[in-house]
Amino acid sequence: MQSIVNRVAIGDILRRNALRFPDKEAVIDGETTISYEELDQLSNQFANYLLSSGLKKGDKILTICGNSWEYIVIFNGIAKAGLIWVPINPGISIKEKLYIIDQVEAKLIIGDAALIQSDIEDINSRCQNIIAVRGNLGDTNTFLVSIEDHSPVEPVVEIQDRDVAQIMFTSGTTGNPKGVMTSHLAVYIASLSNIIECNFQEDERILAMMPLFHCAQHTFTMSCLHRGATTVVISGFEPEKLMKTINDYKITNMFGLPMMYRMMLDHPNRSKYDLSSLRRCTYAMAPMDKQSLERCISEICPQFALGTGQTEMYPSTMVFRPEEQLQRFGSYWGTSCILNDTAIMDDDGNLLPKGEIGEIVHRGPNVMNGYYKNEEETEKSRAFGWHHTGDLGYWDEDGQLVFVDRKKDIIKTGGENVASIKVEGALLTHKTILNAVAVGLPHEHWSEAVTAFVVLKQNTEATEEEIIEHCKSQLGGFQVPKSVIFLEQLPMTATGKIQKHVLRQQYQNHYQVTN
Fold first, then answer.
1. How big, in percent rounded to 5, are the helix, strand and coil portions of the chain?
2. 403, 393 in Cβ contact below 8 A?
3. Cβ atoms of 507 and 485 closer than 8 Å
4. What is the tens place of the pLDDT at every residue in 36-72?
5. CATH fold of 411-506, please?
6. Which CATH architecture is the domain 1-182 placed in?
7. Which of 5, 140, 254, 419 places its Cα 20 to 30 Å from the Cα of 307?
């Protein structure tokens, strides 16, 4: 089969390292340690199960899972079978989950029992083929049972490098999330780029703490597996648990949010743990303030770097490198990774020189295939032959990219993207609210906190607690406002457009902690 001769496929990563390092630790998850040979064979067993179930190329497998060794087997097995992985955030509302299930016409749903138990009837109404991970859901099949009788030999599947490997849904400013189609080639080559950019070595022990359903942790983990290093999995962030993991497993490389590093710095028990094994720490989603960064480099790890990217442009696309960290401060994104070009573009498609603000655009093999079932948005995203990020920035005099602001009103909170229009829609269904807007305000813990500004109808009353509870009934947990600010009127232009930038400026210190 000619396509196998020169193919680029995600599943090849495990097979090659199983041959190179059969007995080496590939994944450590608590008491479970899996070698590269075992990981490859388990992924093959799952791939063979999927194909034996009658699933065919192009079918979508939807997952609702937290971090675990099983999850790593699952998404690698899906890739080996030539099927399409659709990971979704367990924290989104059931309405959004059902929208995604319907949108992709999911043939199989795989979920942690604890994460889908409460929604099982609604999910089952859309797809009756369900596999439970880490627990039971009545008569549904379980992951371990599904693979036990299947061959550990990799199935022969025709895969082209631009075949869609996964569809990750990202919230936009429209009401519904958009599915980003990513190819085998994009994931494969991005993982190689990350190895070079992060200087990963074969003896690394790299932490998988951020959610694996997210593109950032997924690409970080695939880079680790591609290098033949060891992935240490933990589920969720708790500062002392993190420090104990670094101490016990001699973690050499990790990825986290700025607030996570700040919480480690200020933890009263930090001195109990040896963090000296850390060689490099990557942070993302927001810049690090000068004081915290200086302390992190001095007290936690000498090498810190900021990585950026997005689901549509498989990360990383840019790195603010360790040698630049203490040379300049602010919203720096640094320079492009080796696999893509970056430029600044005006609205007419002209590339701008240093110092001029415009939209940040990219080109490279890690660009998405497009938005699923949304050709119009796909074409908009690649106008003038470049991928448009929706972010504004400029090149400084030294060729370092500085991020200015988002062109749209996505709120980045705790590592997740929240569409402000979705929050506003929930707010406006409250019986007392006349008008409302949602923005992200600076917050030490969340990077940006979802904040609601509301104007009440005449002769009505409502409390902050009532409105937040109302939002909880309609939104995922991370989408719910952290605070509600009541105003007599919202700042508007002459044409009635709400001026969100005015609110951001006026209330930028709303969450500032005062002693």
1. 35, 30, 40
2. yes
3. yes
4. 999 999 999 999 999 999 999 999 999 999 999 999 9
5. GMP Synthetase; Chain A, domain 3 (3.30.300)
6. 3-Layer(aba) Sandwich (3.40)
7. 419
